[in-house]
Every structure is written in structure tokens, then in C-alpha cells.
Structure to design on (331 residues):
């Protein structure tokens, strides 16, 4: 069973029913209380002596100033084992030496299943295959065509689709972030920016990716737009514990990011297709259009009430703040 809390500490999620529900919830609440007390011991310690934290990433400033002001000792040795808090990259975690209840880490076990784009694709694909509906829907019903370019057979399949169908495609690197390395291409684009020639069997030319770890995905050419722009919703969750799972959510910390340019499918300006701030702030138009690139969740709710609800009578008032955010079920 999975449960999470919003900012008002309302329990949401799906769980057992009938006779098992009360017993299971009591056990769950007992476990949460135990974990909360353990976490409280870290924050209410009378002395900071012996409290060590490791912070070795480019985002270390998130915790460094706060902890050092409170007398914590910082180490830059990523092999340290006697830490209280470790703020690090996934490969710097040794879960075999992790002391549950005594240490905190800004990573969770198994996160590589969704922390990079290729593993995320495999995870979603396998999940949907396992939960395929009884009427035999294919995965393309839920997700666009996707090819992993490290696989020669998938490269060949992509090239066949690319030549036969007049589609727009988006190419994404496996590990990068902030919009780096993302390309939008069409049938008229030059593939030499992504592929290079090599000799294959029988001295025949073949194409292979210039860089490893790329996904090629069919572009959603008719996306839902807000004010004529593409958007995404940046949602922040605090995963306090994984056993039992305890997640906190505050909608005030969530934001809606809008693309800088109005959407046009065959406009290959990255600021038309990507909502990343790092892409937009380097654009020459950003200084004049900065306020148009973001919304709060309350502003999004007002926009849906004004622009969507009149055309969808079954949509309830304040749909964003109720149905979209509250009625979320996890399995």
C-alpha cells in the first residue's frame, strides 16, 4: 500500500478495504510514527558533535549553508561511512553500508529505473505491457514510437520509419538535463548531426549514432497548449521514507513552465519546443517575455476555469486543485 500527504497532512492513496483496512492502517501509522521520531532525533539533538554530512555535487549549496550554520561538520570524502546526511550522486551510494534509521541520503534504492531516459522508457514500456487492457491495445496507444539508438536493430527500424512517414521526431540524450542535447527533426532534417557512416557487412554503409545513449521518439505534433504555448508542470515531492513509503506534497511548491515561443510544429527554434529555463534565459527574446513563461498552480486553475471548463461541461469547478491534484492513486 502506498500513501502520501499533501500540505494539510491529508492521507491520500489506495489501500486495502473492509476488515483488513483498519489493522493495516494502524500498523502503517505506527511505522510512520516510529520513522518520524527517528527523524526528529536528528533535528532535536542537543549537540551537533559527531553530526557529519557529505555534500559533493553541484547542488551542494542547497544544504551546506544550513547545516554548517548549525555546527555540522562537512566532509568531501565520498567514501565516508559514518555520515548522518549524504547529499550525492547515485553512484556514490553504497546501500550495503547504509544504516537505516540513523542516516539520510538524497537518493532511493532502484532509482535508476526512472532516473535516466532510457531506463524510464523501459520501465514505462514494461509496465504498460504487463497492464495491457483486455481489448488488446498496443503500447503506441499510450506512448509515441520510441527507439533506443544504442540498439542497431532499433536504429534500422527508426530509419525505415523516418524515410516512409512524414513525421516530426525528438532526439533526447540519456543522462543530460536542462534541455541539453535535445533536437527536434523532420523528414527534411540533416541526420549527419546525429548519425555517422560506418562500414557494415559486405562493405555496405550503415548509420550509427555519433554519441551513445540517445532516444529517438515520435514527436507529439498536436500537444495540449496553454495560451498557445507548450507547457509542463514541475511537481516537487518530499520522499521522507521508503519503508514504509511516506511522501509529502505541497502544491504551492509546484510551478507551470511555458515555452517562450508560440507553438508551431515546424519551427525548430528550441525555445518553441522546450520549456527548460536554461534554454529560455539564453534566448534573445527572454528579457521581453520572461513573465509569460511561468504560472503558479492557482493561476493554472483559474485558466482552466476560464478557458477549458466552458467547452467541457462535465469538468468540475477548480478541476486543477481538486481532481488533478487530490484524486491521485498509486499502485
Amino acid at each position: 500500500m502506498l500513501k502520501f500527504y499533501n500540505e494539510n497532512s491529508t492521507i491520500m492513496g489506495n489501500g486495502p478495504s473492509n476488515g483488513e483496512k483498519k489493522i493495516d492502517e494502524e500498523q502503517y501509522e505506527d511505522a510512520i510514527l516510529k520513522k518520524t521520531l527517528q527523524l526528529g532525533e536528528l533535528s532535536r539533538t542537543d549537540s551537533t558533535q559527531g553530526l557529519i554530512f557529505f555534500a559533493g555535487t553541484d547542488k551542494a549549496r542547497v544544504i551546506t549553508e544550513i547545516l554548517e550554520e548549525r555546527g555540522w561538520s562537512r566532509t568531501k570524502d565520498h567514501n565516508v561511512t559514518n555520515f548522518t546526511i549524504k547529499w550525492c550522486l547515485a553512484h556514490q551510494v553504497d546501500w550495503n553500508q547504509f544504516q537505516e534509521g540513523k542516516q539520510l541520503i538524497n537518493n532511493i534504492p532502484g532509482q535508476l529505473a526512472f532516473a535516466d531516459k532510457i531506463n524510464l522508457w523501459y520501465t514505462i514500456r514494461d509496465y504498460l505491457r504487463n497492464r495491457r487492457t483486455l481489448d488488446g491495445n498496443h503500447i503506441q496507444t499510450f506512448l509515441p514510437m520510441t527507439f533506443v539508438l544504442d540498439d542497431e536493430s532499433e536504429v534500422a527500424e527508426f530509419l525505415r520509419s523516418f524515410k516512409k512517414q512524414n513525421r516530426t521526431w525528438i532526439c533526447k540524450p540519456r543522462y543530460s538535463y536542462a534541455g541539453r542535447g535535445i533536437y527536434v527533426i523532420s523528414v527534411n532534417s540533416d541526420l549527419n548531426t546525429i548519425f555517422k557512416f560506418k562500414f557494415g557487412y559486405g562493405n555496405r554503409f550503415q548509420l550509427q549514432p555519433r554519441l551513445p545513449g540517445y532516444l529517438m521518439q515520435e514527436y507529439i505534433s498536436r500537444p495540449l497548449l496553454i495560451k498557445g504555448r507548450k507547457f509542463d508542470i514541475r511537481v516537487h515531492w518530499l520522499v521522507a521514507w521508503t519503508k514504509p513509503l511516506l511522501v509529502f506534497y505541497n502544491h504551492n511548491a509546484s510551478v507551470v513552465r511555458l515555452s517562450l515561443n508560440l507553438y508551431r510544429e515546424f519551427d525548430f527554434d528550441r525555445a518553441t519546443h522546450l520549456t527548460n529555463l536554461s534554454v529560455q534565459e539564453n534566448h534573445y527574446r527572454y528579457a521581453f517575455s520572461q513573465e509569460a513563461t511561468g504560472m503558479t498552480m492557482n493561476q493554472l486553475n483559474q485558466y482552466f476555469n476560464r478557458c477549458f471548463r466552458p467547452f467541457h461541461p462535465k469538468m468540475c469547478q477548480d478541476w486543477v486543485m481538486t481532481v488533478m491534484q487530490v484524486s491521485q492513486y498509486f499502485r
Residues 2-109 form one domain.
